[in-house]
Specification:
Elements lengths: L23 H15 L5 E5 L14 E4 L5 H11 L4 E7 H7 L1 H10 L4 E6 L29 H4 L5 H5 L5 E8 L3 H19 L4 E7 L3 H4 L3 H15 L3 E5 L8
Helix pairs in contact: 1-7, 3-4
């Protein structure tokens, strides 16, 4: 009998703790598939900080390290510099990466650290109760913006890929999504490219994944996907914001 579906070997055979309709599981699978296809499970180290992905060490079969909130890029830098032949990736949410971890994120790009950053953008703090994140859209209702985010009070949402693309050490800055099958396939290609960049020592690769949070958005999984398409993608356009391989040069 032909096998049409199987669990990636780099993904543990355990139930995930994520809420119904959450798209973290999709991204986990894509990362695991890339690790399998490149045959690097035994050479990979993942770093996950505080947030919805805090239990990711239970889900990946590669080595995993827990980092303080926002500090995954700093921890990953230490791991990579002490083990330069290993594949090192971080897996971070928007509250973590773009708020408490902003400095770490910017400076791994400025230094051109040869790591992969998987950035999950669902425009809200998930695990800690649904507060406004740096990526929360104008008018979006959260626990800390009950009347909607007001730019006069809380500033404007940060476009991380556009910001990281300005840094000399960034090799790849790409925004993708997991709302449709074609977009999911494009997301996997971006993750694979990021890991290939690390293999070739090109510098930092950041893949921003537009994702949903049905629980904290107060929406059904189907309506959450529609919100991603109707509200998030217009403000956070999908695409490649920097790719040094397309520009014809390596670091």
């Amino acid at each position: 009998m032909a096998v049409v579906f199987e669990r990636p070997k780099a993904l543990c055979d355990v139930p995930l703790h994520y809420c119904p309709g959450c798209t973290h599981g999709i991204v986990h699978r894509l990362v695991a598939e890339v690790i399998d296809e490149m045959g690097i499970e035994g050479e990979t180290v993942g770093v996950c900080p505080v947030g919805c992905s805090v239990f990711a060490y239970d889900y990946f079969n590669c080595d995993m390290i827990e980092a303080p909130h926002g500090r995954a890029p700093a921890v990953a830098t230490g791991v990579k510099r002490s083990n330069p032949d290993k594949f090192v990736f971080t897996y971070q949410g928007d509250g973590d990466l773009a708020a408490i971890g902003t400095a770490e994120t910017v400076h791994v790009g400025a230094r051109g650290e040869n790591i992969v950053v998987i950035f999950i953008n669902n425009t809200i703090y998930g695990m800690t109760g649904g507060q406004m994140a740096p990526t929360t859209l104008i008018g979006q209702v959260t626990q800390t913006t009950p009347f909607g985010r007001d730019s006069q009070l809380a500033g404007n949402p940060i476009r991380v890929c556009e910001m990281m693309a300005t840094l000399s050490g960034t090799a790849l800055a790409q925004r993708v999504a997991v709302d449709t099958v074609p977009h999911i396939r494009e997301t996997k290609k971006a993750i694979r490219k990021a890991f290939e960049n690390q293999k070739e020592k090109r510098g930092l690769s950041i893949v921003e994944v537009l994702s949903t949070c049905p629980t904290n958005w107060g929406l059904s999984p189907i309506d959450a996907i529609k919100r991603l398409q109707d509200e998030m993608i217009p403000y956070y356009p999908l695409g490649v914001y920097k790719d040094i391989t397309a520009e014809g040069g390596n670091k």
